[in-house]
Amino acid sequence: MRFSKSAFIIAVVLISGCATLNPKQEGYITSSPSGAKISFYEEATKKTNFIGTTPNNAWVKQGIFDTWLLAELGGYESEKWLIPKKGTIDHHFVLQKKAPDYTYYSAKYKLSLSKVERPEKATSRYGKQKIDTIPDSDNKYRYIFEDDLVKILWAVNSRTIAFSIQNKTIHSIKIPWDEAAFIDEKGSSHRVMHSGVKYTDRASPQAPSIIARKASIEDIVFPTDYVKWEEGSRYSAGKWGEKPFFLDNDFHGKVLKGIYSTLSSFEEDAKSNIGKTIQVLLPLQIEDIVNDYIFTFTVDDVLCSEKAE
Q1: 191: which residues sit within 8 A by CB, 6+ positions away?
Q2: How far, in Å, CA of 80 to CA of 40, rounded?
Q3: Domain containing 218: what range?
Q4: Total domain count for the chain?
Q5: Of 2, 75, 96, 238, which residue is the least packed, with the fewest Cβ within 10 Å?
Q6: Positions of E strands within 5-136
Q7: Closest to 269 in 3D by CA, of 226, 307, 302
Q8: Cis ω on the peptide bond leading into residue 176 (within 30° of 0)?
Q9: Closest CA to 102 of 258, 243, 248, 247
Q10: Which of 68, 94, 120 lies at the terminal end of a domain, its last residue?
């Protein structure tokens, strides 16, 4: 059978015209949550035509290919719906939140300087002691101890013990670091390191710090066995890590999996530390006399939070 050229042209027009023969379909598009971007989408051709955000009216004249409604909203999985060939196109999308790439639980500890123990006869030698809170929240240090020998400002959290010490006497004061100690919440004593000591040298003897008369220095205290080398993996290089004094974080990612499955379980364990104490034994040597000062810090409160992205 042969077709004339004119018959062939008519056939092509009829086929190509099929896209406009279907009736106009209208509808009202909504979503939970609202504000999703709505587009018409042809899966066969990958063509997308944005029509607005929900809630919104929409209409379409379907062609030879299946047409979908596509809903997209930041932080949610995209959803699509195949538009029927006939009837209205009213539709409500229920969008599901995307699973986060990572979830991070953190705990912020509030510790106070609750007690200071001094040598016997310290009151007669160095006067009465004073313990107070520094009211300015912008100040680096939060707590103050003072007697006639020294004035010490403290900043303590779950990972840091920092201090500023002022020598109030007319003699030099030494801090013999090899005699200092950190006492954990279980009562175990640990050797300490201070600012300027390399992690690789933390087990070596440490020279004493000297505070000249009427002068001040700033330093930190950290237990040496809370420092460890963390081997690298195919995803990260090796590095030095510091163990916190109390549970203060838990990380869940695509590769690393944390310990706690929920914030509430993490919070329960973190808040179990309320009322527990850590201590710093800080020896102060003046005129060949070593005075052991023991500073006690108590966990007063713990604030937990969750971050997911």
Answers
A1: 178, 181, 203, 223, 224, 225
A2: 9
A3: 103-308
A4: 2
A5: 2
A6: 25-32, 37-42, 47-53, 56-60, 67-72, 79-82, 91-94, 103-117, 130-133
A7: 302
A8: no
A9: 258
A10: 94
Please report whether residue 132 resides in a domain: yes
Question: Do 54 and 115 share a structural domain?
Answer: no
CA distance 220 to 195: 6
Cα–Cα distance, 278 to 111 (Å, whole number): 9
Phi, psi of 297 (to 5 degrees): -115, 130
Contacts of 304 (CB under 8 A, 6+ apart): 105, 106, 107, 108, 263, 266, 267, 270, 271
pLDDT tens for 140-160 read 899 999 999 999 999 999 999
**Tens of pLDDT, residues 103-143:** 899 999 999 999 999 998 888 889 999 999 998 767 789 99
Judge contact between 164 and 152, C-beta under 8 A: yes
The H or E element spanning position 307 is strand 289-308
- What pLDDT sits at residue 22? 65
Query: What confidence score (pLDDT) does residue 18 get?
Result: 39
Peptide bond preceding 33 in cis form (omega within 30 of 0): yes
Tokens 């504000």 label which residue? 35
- Cα–Cα distance, 187 to 239 (Å, whole number): 29
8-state DSSP, 86: S
Q: How far is CA 87 from CA 50, 59, 90, 223, in A?
A: 21, 11, 9, 73
CATH of the domain at 81: 2.60.40
- Taking alpha carbons only, the member of 180, 193, 145, 195 closest to residue 165 is 145
Chain centre to alpha carbon of residue 234: 23
Q: Is the pLDDT of residue 196 over 70?
A: yes
